[in-house]
Amino acid sequence: MEVLYSSTRDKSRKIKASEAILKGLADDGGLFVPDNVPAFDFSLSSLKDMDYKATAYNVMKLLLTDFTEEELKYCINGAYDSKFDTEEIAPLVYADGAYYLELFHGKTIAFKDMALSILPFLMTTAAKKNNVKEKIIILTATSGDTGKAALAGFADVPGTGIVVFYPKNGVSAIQEKQMVTQKGDNVKVIGITGNFDDAQTGVKMMFNDDELKAELKEKGYVFSSANSINIGRLVPQIVYYVYAYGNLLKNGKISEGDKINVVVPTGNFGNILAAYYAKTMGLPINKLICASNENKVLYDFFETGKYDRNREFILTSSPSMDILISSNLERLIYTIAGCDDKKNAGFMESLKSTGVYTITDDMKEKLADFVGGYATEQQCASKIKDLYDKTGYVIDTHTSVAAYVYDDYKAKTGDNTPAVIASTASPYKFMHSVMTAIDKKYDGLNDFELIDELAKVSGVDVPGAVEDIRTAPVLHTDVCDKEEMKSRVKAFLGI
Ligand SMILES: *Cc1c(COP(=O)(O)O)cnc(C)c1O
């Protein structure tokens, strides 16, 4: 059955998956959502025999229905290859009562690689299918990890260009070095003197700027987005939850049909939304546990039904979750509003004008599968140390937020359903925070000095991605105010 996509703010116009991938964001500022979420057409037990690529094909074909089998397999095979440092692509590691789904074995050692390895293939295939003649310019705001993963994915991909904005003082030293050393003739990296929300708002404004779009079109360019609002990122993220379930089945940890809990360290709400779609499609998920750091706007939302971004923005040691406007939540709001586009548009208007909206009691009831939790900086650090002391396993700060929230959930509820924790970054990406959590003696050392220390402590080899940037030259030094973002993009494109 064909799945079509429409905006969360106006569902009157429907487009194909490939068109939605090309557009990224709908013209009205809404996000594309599928008009129906198909159920799996395979049995859960068949997952035992599927590798990552086979799982990806079987899941993605249900939602990207206008891609042919050949096209989709071309994209999957191109993405999930030796760019990953393990054939398993997303290994599951058991430690102290939970399964850690390691989503950081790609090029940039964070979970964004899971989707951004395939997005350039999906996008260039979509462009071909739709006879797009313009060069596709990817415009991206990043809280640290998306930027590098998108740069790595799109660098030197013919027919594309990419501009990445990141908060100059809001990312880790490793994250920044990864981005500013990016090679490629079609890439541009710019720091902004604001936070992630400023960067994201600036990018959204450019997407909604009709004058700018017309100007671009005339010069042979068209914008698209690699942010997690793109359906071409969301769909590939569903895959690894299904794959993890297959892994648990294959290894006899669960029986077919048994439920699992899923715990996700959350920022823009893309990763956990993918788990929600997996559940809707038929994956036996009991609770979706949404873990926040001290920027706990989502925790408060799940507690009260009121989304309120009017609060201090806190810089934490899990910077990829330092977000007050979780864009992908809009897809959930639309869904629990009974796919009522006008109602959703009203909430989003209210969010834009006042920073607040409150959902109805009916809608709140539909959130019963979600549990919100949060960890303070202290709790996040203690969990890293605790797990390390008990098991020798070292996790990063984002994963630790989720691990702490999971412990807390289990203690409060006694729910012992097997749990999969999305492990979203390698500890090598957030070295200083991880190492000082384990032992204060590392405090005087910087990220780069700590690389070898972490290798000793964890027994995990230094990833290639980290080795590379130790010596790579800095190629991007631009910094601008949020008001200047548009002129910087135009300068890069020579218009
Ligand atoms: C992006 C990111 C997150 C947050 O994921 P969302 O899909 O934005 O909720 C968590 N951890 C890491 C390491 C990330 O890079």
Write a short abstract of this structure.
With 495 residues, the chain is of the alpha/beta class. It has helices at residues 17-23, 52-63, 69-79, 112-116, 119-129, 145-154, 173-180, 196-207, 210-218, 231-250, 270-281, 297-304, 329-336, 341-354, 361-365, 377-391, 397-413, 431-438, 451-458, 464-471, 485-493, and strands at 5-7, 10-15, 32-34, 92-95, 98-102, 135-141, 160-167, 187-192, 221-225, 260-265, 285-292, 306-308, 356-358, 370-374, 419-423, 479-480. Helix content is 44%, strand content 16%.
Characterize the overall form: globular
Strand tally is 16
Q: Provide the β-strand percentage band.
A: 15-25%
Question: Helical percent range?
Answer: 40-55%
Largest sheet: 6 strands, mixed
Bound molecules: pyridoxal-5'-phosphate
CATH architectural category of one domain: 3-Layer(aba) Sandwich
What is the spatial order of strands in the main beta sheet? 4-5-15-10-11-14
Helix- and strand-based class?
A: alpha/beta
Number of contiguous helices: 21
CATH C-level category of one domain? Alpha Beta
User: For the CA atoms, what is the radius of gyration?
Assistant: 21 Å
CATH topology of one domain: Rossmann fold
Mean model confidence by pLDDT? 95
Query: How many angstroms does the end-to-end distance come to?
Result: 43 Å
* Low-pLDDT sequence parts: none
